[in-house]
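Practice problem: predict the structure.
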Amino acid sequence: MIDNLALGLSHGLMMLAAFLLLKRPDLDREPSPHDKADTTRPPGKPRPGA
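Answer:
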């Protein structure tokens, strides 16, 4: 019983993490060398949602 619970919980959490990663909007974008750099945020601050 404990083995099945541990396997189910761990695999469920991995599926949730994969789903959330695949749902990210920046997953499908690659910046072009011709794109302007994002200068609206300070250098040390991460992107929203990152």
